[in-house]
Amino acid sequence: MRLTLVAACVALSVAYFGVIRPAEQRHDRDTLTVDQLLSSGSSTTVADHPVLKVGDPLPPMDLAALAGVGTSTSHRFRVAADGRATLINLWASNCAPCVKELPLLESEHLRRADSVRFVGIDALEGGDAPVAMVRRFGLTYEQAVDPEGSILARFGVAALPATVVVDAAGTITAIHHGAIPDATTLSNLLDEALD
User: Fold this and answer.
1) Where are the alpha helices (DSSP H) in 25-170?
2) What pLDDT sits at residue 149?
3) Phi and psi at residue 156, in whole multiples of 5°?
């Protein structure tokens, strides 16, 4: 019953933010809704877990590596507390705001690689487009794929991009919906997790 209720809440959120709310109230230029991605032929499933929120511990997540890029030496890797803060960025190559923030994330990754683990997750896509995007921007942090949208559902994300920040103990300190506008905002999100 509880899992069904969570699934229904996520579905209603997606429907509200992607369809019901009038277009002029949406931030279409700042985000790509899950509905927009789904209309391009992808499908999503709601995970059988409660939606994670700020203050929750990040459960270990086994991710499929984006083939052909990144630092992962296997086809899968695990995101879990490892003594560093973690930034998880959910993006898609056909999302203009996602693409706009990628250089900002790469720059901060290079500056903070010793204290923050960066993980990019291409959502509801797959194929060659995300690989081409990673190569185009020379992204050096880990990249994973979430073709079914299960990680989007875990974080209750209804539009891309979205960024999740986790402290070194594994507690979620921020879930930022929409593109990160500048280096100061990104730095503040990470500093909060490092305090």
Assistant:
1) 34-38, 96-112, 128-137, 150-154
2) 87
3) 65, 35
pTM: 0.73
Q: Specify whether the CB–CB gap between 174 and 193 falls below 8 A.
A: yes
**pLDDT tens per residue across span 8-22:** 444 444 433 443 333
For residue 20, give the DSSP letter.
I
Of 96, 98, 99, 100, give the one whose Cα is nearest residue 161: 98
Write the DSSP string, 146-162.
ETT-HHHHHTT--EE-E
Tens of pLDDT along 105-156? Answer: 999 999 999 999 999 999 988 778 899 999 999 999 999 988 888 888 999 9
Taking Cα atoms as reference points, which of 164, 165, 163, 171 lies closest to residue 191?
A: 165
Cα 32 to the center of its chain, rounded Å: 12
- Residue spans of beta strands (DSSP E) within the chain: 32-33, 61-65, 76-79, 85-91, 116-123, 142-146, 159-160, 162-166, 172-177
Angle 166-80-119 from CA coordinates, rounded to 5°: 65
Q: How many whole angstroms separate alpha carbon 195 and alpha carbon 182?
A: 20
Question: β-strand 76-79 against 61-65: which pairing, if any?
Answer: antiparallel
Residue 173 has pLDDT above 70, yes or no: yes
For residues 20 and 11, is the Cβ–Cβ distance under 8 A?
Answer: no
Half-sphere exposure of 51 (CA within 13 A, CB side): 19
